[in-house]
Amino acid sequence: MKKFINDPAHVLAEALRGVAAAHPDLRVDHDNRVIYRSEPTRAGKVALVSGGGSGHEPLHGGFVGIGMLDAACAGEVFTSPTPDQMLAATKAVDSGAGVLLIVKNYTGDVLNFEMAAELAAAEGVRVASIVVNDDVAVEDSTWTAGRRGVGTTVILEKVVGAAAEDGYDLEAVRALAERVNTAGRSMGVALTSGTVPTAGKPTFDLPEDEMEVGVGIHGEPGRHRVPLASAHEIAKMLVDPIVHDYDASGPAIVMLNGLGGTPLIELYLLYGEVAPLLEAAGVSIARNLVGDYITSLDMAGASLTVVKADDELLRLWDAPVSTPGLRWGA
Amino acid sequence: MKKFINDPAHVLAEALRGVAAAHPDLRVDHDNRVIYRSEPTRAGKVALVSGGGSGHEPLHGGFVGIGMLDAACAGEVFTSPTPDQMLAATKAVDSGAGVLLIVKNYTGDVLNFEMAAELAAAEGVRVASIVVNDDVAVEDSTWTAGRRGVGTTVILEKVVGAAAEDGYDLEAVRALAERVNTAGRSMGVALTSGTVPTAGKPTFDLPEDEMEVGVGIHGEPGRHRVPLASAHEIAKMLVDPIVHDYDASGPAIVMLNGLGGTPLIELYLLYGEVAPLLEAAGVSIARNLVGDYITSLDMAGASLTVVKADDELLRLWDAPVSTPGLRWGA
Prior knowledge:
alpha/beta; Hypothetical Protein Tm841, Chain: A,domain 3; homodimer; 8 helices; six-stranded mixed sheet; Rossmann fold
């Protein structure tokens, strides 16, 4: 294992020190392992809290800031944060207008966020939740009942974050989040496994001439292993399951996401293959992201996310955002 | 070799297709392999042209846009672009106010940009050049006479790009570029080698328990190989050669850059080690970047860049920028 770490058991705590040092606009609660905006939630603004296992950076901590999240709870690598962390975050960011919890569909995250929501409600915080389940690869996985929550989370946090800044109330924010989740689909492929620091070796073995199609962001098995294919063939493996799963035609926000170990030149090459396939399937790419947004440590691989969009979603997408991971107009 | 490619010989051409598809604000000349802003250079604005071998993305093509470059010439992977490409770019972006060529100090780039400058001057374009040579690792390398040009290039393109937008004339732009280069130092370390697609195997062998200190962005040998060290020790190996090379004290723009295969959680952890060491050496980190800005394909590794700054440099740094690789205030 070759990594920039000290003690494998302290990776998260030490990475949070770096986040705090790098971003004066953020405040890190090192005891609870929560990343907040430096400024408290504006009165009347619905607050957004997300979180999950670490190792997917910039998700979620890198999406805290104006126009996106108010707080992100960081679990250990590939491990859900605890209800205590989520409760602390939820109470801290509530301005009285309520809090939306954004949860990726993994069993541990779902259970812990549910418990935190109950505890927060018992303390008088109005709480709503959205569980993102956009991964078309498998119906159930080693980590999940139902579809996993992956790339659509990034787009949801941006769009819903803008709506909260705009003054949408809690029910409107929740309904919008539901709409984005319903409109989103993702599919991923791994060329190599990532390595969890405390494990010290790759999560799974993948022969030099094979790839995992439909991989999860923790290295969960996907649909099948196939011989290593060309970028053109891989693009089809990403696009086809999405456009066969729902009517993807019309305007969309599209993200081609690197899983951590794939260089940008390869992502652009792959995007050059993906974009015409999507257009041929009737998808009109209104906005796009190409880069690392929801990763799996040092995994070489990529995922494609397509979120069907309308004028409201595009307006909210274009609104100013200022976070470490996404920034424009601010 | 596990990569998102089709034919290894067509990586650059196909990646440029993806760049064109992803970025409507950019225009790609596929024949000359030059990335331009979509809008022509505003009359009276000094134009900035850079370029170099591909494989270092987002540098340089990802820094074309408002507030940074007007054009970037893309060579094949780790291969200088040709004088023809540079000449085409220089002529295309000149609005009459002249063109600054930003060159990283590698022998091929320097010779080709010199030839392009002469040809452009012969055609009546006013041209100035800056050769960036900020790498403290080695005095000469397999690819360079004198110090190599690395991370300071990113900060120079941002600062000088803002000055050009502000109306600085060609001589003022050139003098500023000289000042930024003189103020900048970089040092890098590799945990693994990257793989050039046409080579099909890692550029160099690095045993599982060793790292290369002072590595170049093409995998050139550095100062020495040492046993794999902790992040804390590695931070010293990055900071010490810089602060021993010049008086780094005072305000600075600091970049901790990933070389392509290192995940963000490790970069933040390393930044948490680097920042206090710099502060202890008298460096006041006024601005920072943590992420992948000048890469070496899929190399696991990182580089540190420190650019001493004053009020003018910080004002230009903070000015709006809108490129695929750096974006704020726009």
